Amino acid sequence: MISSLKKPYHLSYFEEAVGILHELIEQDSILYIQIGQIILALPPSLIQGLKPLINQKIAILHTDIPEKQYLLRILDQDPTSCEKASISEGLHIDKKMHSGLPP
Question: Residue 54: inside a domain, yes or no?
Fold first, then answer.
């Protein structure tokens, strides 16, 4: 639960978080989201793009592209998928990736 705010994680460039989006809150001009069991700190401008995705499995990739700093993928909801989010190591780009977030 985000209300117990453990230390939030900040994605590095080309790092991706994957998991079910459980909750999001904006506090002190920062957007905190819970994806699996991880709390991420993101820019508040992403809130409108993420709100409709609560309870869906998503992936968020941090890029070095100025106009698309975060790319979002909506993943198939696999009933056998685990609840925990993962942070991908290294570069992980999916050719199906698109930006579902506002510019």
Answer: yes
**Given a cut of 80, is residue 17 above it in pLDDT?**
yes
Give the model confidence (pLDDT) of 32-83 as tens digits. 999 988 999 999 999 999 999 999 999 999 999 999 999 999 997 555 555 4
Q: What pTM, to 2 d.p., does this model score?
A: 0.71
Structural domain includes residue 65: yes
Contact 75, 20 (CB under 8 A): no
Range of the domain at 79: 2-87
Complete DSSP assignment for 30-91: EEEEEETTEEEEE-GGGHHHHGGGTTSEEEEEE-S-TT-SEEEEEPP--TT--S--EE--S-
Closest by CA position to 8, among listed 44, 47, 37 = 37
